[in-house]
Amino acid sequence: MKLLSIVIPAYNEAAFIGTLLERIAQVDTRALGFEKEVLVVNDGSTDATESIARSFEASGVKCFTQVPNQGKGRAVRRGIHEAAGDYILVQDADLEYDPADYLPMLKGLEMGVDSIYGSRVLGQIRKSGWTGRHPEQGLGPWMAGVILSVWTFLLYGRWISDTLTAYKLYPAQILKAMRLETSGFETDHEITAKLIRGGMKIVEVPISYHPRSADEGKKIKPSDGFIAVWTLLKFRFGKVF
Question: What's the whole-model pTM score?
Fold first, then answer.
C-alpha cells in the first residue's frame, strides 16, 4: 500500500487545527490504496497551535516547529523534507478546504498523471455557476485567480483554472528533487512552474471550498498576487532541478 504524506503549514491556527486533524483522521484513504501520515509544521505560532497539534501525536500526527515564523513556503519545504510518502499533499491549517476531497484527488491518479490540483473554480462551476466564483469569495481574490490562470497560460501554454488552490497533490520523488528557493505563498507557483517545465502532467479535479475572511485569520494579502506574477515569470527560465 502506498503512503500519502499530508503536510500542514500552520501559523496561529489554534481555532482550526484541532478540528482539521479530526476531520483528516476520518478520511478513509485506505479504500484507494493509501495509508496516510500527517505532518504539522508549526511556523512560529504565538498561540496554542503547537500544543493542540502535539495533543494528536498519540494518534500518529507528527509535529515540527520552526522559530521564528519563516513563511508558508519554508514550512512547506520543511514538510517535504520530513515526508516519507509516495505522494505529498499540502493542506492549509484552516477549514477552507474539506479533507474529504482527498478521495477524488487520489482517485484522479488512476488517470496516469503526475500531479493532481484540486480546483475550487471547477467545484463551483459544477455546483452553481459558470464563473467559478464562490458567493462568499471576494471579487479581488477571484479576479487575482483569473489573472494568474491567464498569466500561466501565456508563459507556459498550460491552462490551470485554479493556480491559487491550496490543495495540490505531488509525486514525492519529483518534489524532493526540486531545489526550491522561495519561502512565502509563492512557493506554490514555483512548484507549478517547475512541474510544467519538467514535462509533468497536471490534472485538475473539482473540490469544495469555504472562504474565510481576514477577520477570521486569512493571511494572504494583495501584494502576494504581484509576487505570484513575478514568481511565475522568474521560474519560466533557469533550472528545474
Answer: 0.91
Residue identified by cell 500552520 is: 10
pLDDT at res. 73:
92
- Select from 165, 152, 164, 162 the least CA-distant residue to 197: 152
Q: What is the DSSP string of 114-131?
A: SEEEEEHHHHHHHHT-TT
Q: How far apart are CA 229 and CA 119, in angstroms?
A: 19
pLDDT per residue as tens digits for the range 129-180: 666 666 667 777 778 888 999 999 999 999 999 999 999 999 999 999 999 9
Listing DSSP states for 63-114 in one string gives EEEESS---HHHHHHHHHHH--SSEEEE--SSSSS-GGGHHHHHHHGGG--S
Calculated CA dihedral for residues 88, 93, 99, 103, nearest 10 degrees:
-10
CB 72 within 8 A of CB 187: yes
Give pLDDT, residue 217.
Answer: 47
Residue 184's nearest CA partner among 151, 226, 214 is 226
